[in-house]
Amino acid sequence: MPLVKTSKLITIERHISEEHALHPQATGEFSRLLRDLTLALRILARDVRRAGLNDVLGLTDETNVHGERVKRLDIHANDVIIRAMDHGGHLCVMASEESDALIQIPDEYSKGKYVLVFDPLDGSSNIDVNVSIGTIFSVYRRLDPTLTTGGNVEDCLQPGYKQVAAGYAMYGSSTQLVYSSGNGVDVFTFDPTIGEFLLTFEKIRIPRKGKIYSVNSGNAYKWHQGVRDYVAHLLRPSDDGLRPYSLRYVGTMVADVHRTLHYGGIFMYPADSMLPSGKLRLVYEVNPMAFIIEQAGGMASNGTQRILELEPESLHQRSPCFMGSPDDVREVESFINSSPE
Ligand code: P6P
To answer: How would you classify residue 264: left for phi > 0, otherwise alpha for psi between -120 and 50, otherwise beta?
Structure first.
């Protein structure tokens, strides 16, 4: 699918302010929130790129809320985002994969009408082998905009369709920021020589159907029958040449979804007999990525329901996810729904 590569020389700040002009009732507070967030992403782009030289690698002796040993870069990324975002007066509360509890805005700082939830460094298991990792974020309005006090957990547990904006940074061969505030998906590439994110692709549209599926096949023996039947279907050659599909799996959600967004196909992390809700976290991984995929014309499902309509019940809850080209997601849903399990 030819990507709409733009010739315009536009920084993300200019782009956000132009989008802001589309919402005259907006106060500019949202634009300033995104400006602060891109500062944090610039810092993380620098630090991830230099991670090997900064001796920021290696394990800490800590584990996070999920019992996973936390790499020092995870903690650093979490701290950078919190410190960049907690004093701007735009947020009433934050939540992070790396923080067990809510992140309250310190008393000395004013509280705003937005909520930020994020995964500071997705794909941490790939940090040491220089495989792409990323930051995922999502912005909501607080439930009661008349309040000027700190937010609460309900502000962070809104269904994904209420997201005001979402996106991710991918720290790979270059650092790219993929972002949507509900007006389509735009891609910005970081130019470290000038310290700016420059608009690279405008209003990306995902292909209706792809030829790539992305899943950890090592879990196949634990999948529900419908998912096993679907993958077996993808691998059976068809007369029209549309099958077999190719398997591509990085093991960093940001990288696998980024490829799916550009090339089409499907990314999956299904539930299985060991993980009945899958592995990926609904609030700060699955919902923001589902928002991006839908804004690009794709679909995102938990196998039976639209991801963005799920009502989160806890900060760190997990959700099965099937996201990507609409024809591919519909096909896996049909296999799941017609399976006896
Ligand atoms: P598995 C990385 O640890 C992560 O949270 C996601 O970025 C990625 O999609 C998934 O887990 C990979 O999990 O079980 O395939 O290693």
So the answer is: left
